[in-house]
Structures are given as structure tokens and as C-alpha cells.
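Meet today's protein:

…
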Amino acid sequence: MLHQNHYDAFTGLGHFKKNALVRFFNRYLEHKWLDESSLFRAIDYALKEIPSFGGFILTAEIENEIVAALVVNKTGFAGIMPEYLLVLQAVKPIAKSKVIVRKLEEKAIALAQGDISFLNKERGPKELLLENMTAHAKFREITNKAENRSKASA
């Protein structure tokens, strides 16, 4: 059975679970652009274990085994740029065909009290065309303003 977990500065994350999460990201991140110490820093930032604005971590587990996870950090730039940045997202290959990641993303959008941006990893035909014409955008923004949340619930 699928179980979603939410961790932040108030709930914390135990040493064993944090190490398991870093191992999970280290193994299943789609793009290996972060080393292990950077993974720990991103997690510590979200949990406010280092000076930061905080954020949160969401995991999906089946039988106490992580199958998907994401880390969202608060930027502290509300009104200037998106207030949250989805910095890490990984999923086990066996769970990719399921809606597990989508459910985590929806929960992250609901938990965020501002706009969210995330690294642009998709490179479809539209992105390739734009890249040929101009510089490629590294971030995409998900607008999560109050008026959009009220429209979604209607």
C-alpha cells in the first residue's frame, strides 16, 4: 500500500531516514548533477538544519521502501521570483508508469504557500525549437497564486 510522508522543520527527519533518502536520490536521480554532500545540503536546507528559509520533503513509500521523493526549498524571494524551488525529484523505474510522482507533485503544489519553479528537464520538440532560436530556459514556473487555487477547487 502506498504511503505518503511529509517532512519539514517541525517534523524533522531521523539520521537513518535521511541517509536512506540520500542513497535513494543518489541512485535514482534522472540527471546526476549533484554529489552526495550537495544532496545532504538540499535536504538540510528544507529541514532548516542549516540556516535557511526551509521547505519540505515528500516521499512515497510502499512497504517502508521509498519509491518516489522530492525536495522543495523555500527561496525567500516572494514577489521577486517563485517562492519555492523543487530541487530534487526521483522515482524508481518500477513506479514511473504509476501516478505516484503526479500525486507527490500535486501535494507539493497544495503545500506551497507561493509559486513553485523547478528545473526544466524536459526537452520536447517545443524546447528544441526554442533552444535553436534562443537560449534554453533552465527553470519552469508553476503559478500557484490564491486566485488559481480557488479556481481549481471550483
Q: What stands out?
A: The helical segments are 15-28, 36-46, 100-111, 125-133, 146-153. Confidence is low (pLDDT under 50) at residues 124-130, 146-154.
